[in-house]
Specification:
The chain is mainly alpha-helical. It has 15 helices and 4 strands. The termini are far apart. This is NADH-quinone oxidoreductase subunit H.
Length: 456
Amino acid sequence: MTSAAVTHGNGEALVAAEPGLEAFGTDPWWLVLGKAVTIFVFLMVCVLMMIMADRKVMGRMQQRHGPNRFGPWGLLQSLADGVKLSLKEDLVPRDVDRVLYIAAPIIAAAPAFMTFAVIPIGPEVTIFGVVTPLQLTDLPVAALLVLAAAAMGVYGIVLGGWASRSPYALLGGLRASAQVISYEIAMGLSFVAVFMYSQTLTMSGIVEAQRPIWFAVILFPSFAIYLVTMVGETNRLPFDLPEGEGELVGGFMTEYGSMKYTMFFLAEYVNMTTVAAVSVTLFLGGYHAPPPVTTLWAGAAEGWWPALWWLLKFCGVMFLFIWLRGTVPRVRYDQLMQLGWKVLIPVQLVWITAIAAIRLLMNEGAPAAVTGGVIAAFSVLTVACLYACARSARRRREETAAERATELRRMRDDPKHGGFPVPPPDAPHYGSSVPAEHPRLTPPASTDKREEVTGA
């Protein structure tokens, strides 16, 4: 694997070493086939283990046991559920578009498997005497392949809802399309900052550019926004509105069963593993060990050990999905759209502009004071905007609460608006001889039983 130093205007190295693409495409056919099969098996095992961990961890969060009957400690429960779903009777509704109805689950699952081919899990190692990187392949535009595959996955959801010819499924598919379009833009903008700092679109080059420091540290706003967008892209709580079991019966999967439903379920969890692997690659240093480990142990970056560090980071991001599902309630659809279009995208645009200005000043050799002033100005502007947004949101909440209280008071006092028909205080009692239209109403006669007995 060749290395090339990238320099900027003043001749200083911008990226220490960027691996080239010459290491890919030279492996024997059996090794390429072995890598592809390993990726497929790894994804399938991750799906089974993630479903089991999802139920076990959430069970502990809710002070109950998760699945613990099938297999030791319930480890085979996910496999049993998959076999049960696959063996169920496959019913196809009468009026569906059969071609699209059958193709939709495949279209939803296939792009997620394709994306994992460009994820670097480790550096070059020796496998049966062949020196090869722990990565199936890499491309000059590998990072764009990730975005393209994420955008293709939504077609399976939309087609599944449309081909079912059901209003519930169609509404779930439309929700999914709007949600993915909204959060795809913010996700793509979070990649732009990574491209500016790494000066490459290859996944292996981005990992090598993080050898001094992870991009999650120096590009923390992009990393935080990517974490939000990856949850929205995978339709997980609190953004699982395309399914919305409590309000849409099952969303775009309402008319599906047996193996086709299993494919949609598989696509959701494979997408989770893919976006988690992308977050590790772009922001968490990839297979590089954390700085304390590399300082204390020089051999942490040798051999197969980098694959272990990658796996630990990957498991940490996957746990984030479970933690969010067990702690955060589902948001409303208007809140979902407002977060995507009014918060994430504007913040990313301002952040990208600041990053571009900082990189330009660094490439032109500007003094550190000027660069620091730009960073300070951006920080002050960001804090001021967040404060203004918080005040505006609080004012809207207060106005909404006041309007609701006024409406409730009006409904309580006025029978025309749903209140209980209580007679006014000066209305005559039933049985009184005073007409209702009399301007001055006299109090009714006494009905005290004691007065009747004593004759008082």
